Amino acid sequence: MPALSDVLTALDTLWPPERAEDWDAVGTVCGDPSDHVDRVLIAVDPVQEIADEAVELGAQLLLTHHPLYLRGTTTVAADTFKGRVVHTLIRNGIALQVAHTNADRADPGVSDALAGALGLRITGPLVPDPDDPAGRRGLGRICELDQPLTVAEFAAYAAARLPATAQGVRAAGDPDRPVRTVAVCGGSGDSLFPAVRAAGVDAYLTADLRHHPASEAREQSPLALVDAAHWATEWPWCEQAATQLDALSDRHGWDLRVHVSHRVTDPWSAHAAADPARPSSTTPHRGAARAPSEVTPGAPN
Predict the structure, then answer these.
(1) What is the pLDDT of residue 291?
(2) Using one digit for the tens of pLDDT, what is the confidence trace for 64-83?
(3) Which one, 68, 84, 127, 228, has least CB within 10 Å?
């Protein structure tokens, strides 16, 4: 069995920590470098449910995409959520390693896995890494569909190909507009709207789209927006990472047993959608204005 230090060194070749954003917190959260590893669990979120799964599995290393401590802390007390995770892992001899924005910018990275899950053909990065002379690394990916789909069809297609969540997939734009080129970004992607517009794609699939950035993007161009759950857009990376770690294990003769968690850690657990075609006496219709008699004096219009 390899030492934890050897495995972590190898992981740093896949996702170099120096390529993480300045605000990020990647690398080793806990773990004794001299311990040995023969079983690894890969997941998106370092939450208690995943820590417990690592214990049940008998893993010595938990690799997650999201950091446990993104900002500074003064305690790892076990009566706090994050402290309890740390205590669970240390008590059971499990190391925690994080690959976050360094995995986003990698080649292959999080957005490559997302494009692969959607069966899209990648033509290049959305935001190229200025330190990459080959121009293959960076944030997001620009992709092409093998056959054009309408916006509505592409949203349904994405919903069928990505892991199921309570949110599902929602779309903004003309449902009948054809989609041939797509930009994708795993995780929260509304900060990349300028690059998406510059790319001239037909649609942008990402997660966590907020009202104002989405509204402004729609007003500035006919770009269609496809918004999926954050967890669902990043989970495909877990399977990609497992394949990469399997290859490293074979290369070094480690015989690691690598597992991907299939537990849904998306925080949303239910979805209730109203029928937009069904009129309601209390719901304004798109484009409708209130009659003058309905305006309350002194209230904002």
Answers:
(1) 44
(2) 999 999 988 899 999 999 99
(3) 84
SS3 for 158? Answer: helix
Maximum Cα interatomic distance, the chain, rounded to a whole number of Å: 78
Q: Spell out a b/e string for 221-240, using b for 16 or more CB atoms within 10 Å of the CB, else e.
A: eebbbbbbbbbbbbbbbbeb
Tell me the three state secondary structure of residue 151: helix
C-alpha span between 132 and 138 (Å, rounded): 8
pTM of the model: 0.91
Q: Nearest 10 degrees: CA dihedral of 248, 252, 257, 262? A: -10
Per-residue pLDDT at 280: 63
Burial class from Cβ neighbours inside 10 Å (0-12, 13-18, 19+) for residue 88 reads: middle
Tell me, what amino acid is at 162?
L
Residue 112: closest CA among 82, 131, 140, 153: 140
Q: Which helix (H) or strand (E) holds 182?
A: strand 178-188
